[in-house]
Amino acid sequence: MQTLYYDSKDLSVKKILAIAEFLQISLELNENVELAKQPEFAAKSPFGDLPVLETEKGTIFEEYGIITYLCSQKENPIYPTTRFEQIQLEQWCHIAKTKIDIPILPWYQGITGETSYNKQAIQVAKSNVRSVLLILNEYLKTRTYLVGETLSVADVVVASSLYPCFKFLFWEQFIKMFENLIRWYKTIINQPEMVKFFGEFQILDKEPRPQQQPKQPKQQQQKKKQPQQKKQQPKKEEEKKEEEKKEEETEKPKKKQNPLDLLPKSDFSLEDWKRVYSNSDTRTKALPWFYENFDSKGYCIYFSKYKYPEDLTKDFLACNLASGYVQRLESLRKYGFGSLCIVGKDSKYTIIGAWVFRGLEKPAELLECYDTESHEFTLADLSDPEQKSYFEDLLAWDGKLNGDPFVDGKTLK
Question: Ranges of Low complexity compositional bias (predicted)?
Answer without folding.
Answer: 210-220
